Amino acid sequence: MTACALFSSGISQAVLRGLSLAALRAVPSLFPSSVIAGTLIRSGAADRLIRSAGRPFSRLTGLSPACFQAYVFGLLGGYPTGVSVLCDLFDRGILAPLDAALGSALCLNCGLPFLAAVCSARSTSFAAVTAAHLIGGAAAYGVCRTLCKRKRFTADPAVKRPDVTSKTGGKQDILQKTTKSFTASVFASAGAMLKVCGFVALFTPPAEAAARIAGDAPLAPVLAGMLEMTGGAFRMPPGDPVGLAFCVSFGGLCVLMQGMDLLFERGLPVWPMAAAKILHGIFSALAAYGLSFAGVL
C-alpha cells in the first residue's frame, strides 16, 4: 500500500500501458477466436468438424479426441483460449477430470497470429520460434504425462459446475441453436476479455519495474516476460529466437494465473499445467538454440 501511494503516478501510467497493450495486442486475436470456438462447441459443430482428426491426436497424446478442439483453438487464439475451451468441454460433461487436467498441460499455448506479429516486430524467424514452441510443448507434456501416470484426478465436489445444458430440448432447429450459441459465446468471451485485460494491467507495473531494475542486462526482457509475456516478448532483442521462444512458451505468471483461475473455478488440479508451462519455456529455449546452432531454420 505504501509503495502504491509513493509511486501512484508511475503505477497508473504502467497500468494504462498494460491496458493499451492488452487492447491492441491480445484482445484482437483472442476475442474473435474465443467467440468462434465457443459457438462451434456450444452448437456441436466442432464435434463434426474435427472428429476424424481427433482420433490420431488421441493415439499420440492419450487424451480424449475432444481435447484436439482445445489444442487447435489454443494455437489459433492464444493464451488462455486452449484451457478455456477445455473447461467448456468439461462443463458439458464431454471431458473427464483426468483429460481436463492433463489437457491443460498441452493446450495452453501461445497463438500463432501473435507469434507472427511479435516475430515480425523483433526481426526473428517465425519458423524457428514456432517449431521450438511446438517441440517444447510436446516435450513438456510428455514429462507431465509420465509423472501423472499413477495419479487419479477428480474435480473438487465442493465446487459447483456451471449449468450449460440446453433448456429447449433436442428439437431446436439449427438456426435457433446457432444463434443462441453465438450469443452465449459473445457474452462469455466478453467477460473473459475483461479478465485478460485485468491480469495484464495488474502484471505490467511489476514487469516494467523488473526490466528497469535489470537495466541493459541481456536478461531484462526475460525477467519482464516471466511476469507479463506480451510486454516481455516485444522487448526482446531483434533476432533472438532463444529468449523469445522461452518467453512465449512459458507465458509468464500473468498467463499462468489466468489458466489457474479457469481450473480453480471447476475444482480441477492446476499443478500439471503449472509444471508444464515452466518446462515448456525451458524446452522451447533449448529447441530454439539447437535449431539455430544446427542452422536448420
| Fraction in helix | over 70%
- How many angstroms separate the termini? 48 Å
Overall pLDDT confidence = 82
Order of helices and strands: HHHHHHHHHHHHHH
**Beta content:** under 5%
* Tally of helical segments: 14
Which outline best applies? Answer: globular
Cα-atom Rg, whole angstroms?
19 Å
Total domain units: 1
**Number of extended strands:** 0
Low confidence ranges: 1-7, 165-169
Instruction: Report the structural category.
Output: mainly alpha
Query: What characterizes the major β-sheet?
Result: none
Word description of this protein:
The structure is a single chain. The protein is an all-alpha fold. It has one domain. It contains 14 helices and no strands. The radius of gyration is 19 Å and the shape is globular.
Strand-helix topology:
Elements: H1 2-6, H2 8-43, H3 45-61, H4 67-77, H5 81-91, H6 97-107, H7 112-121, H8 126-148, H9 174-214, H10 220-227, H11 229-233, H12 241-250, H13 252-265, H14 271-294
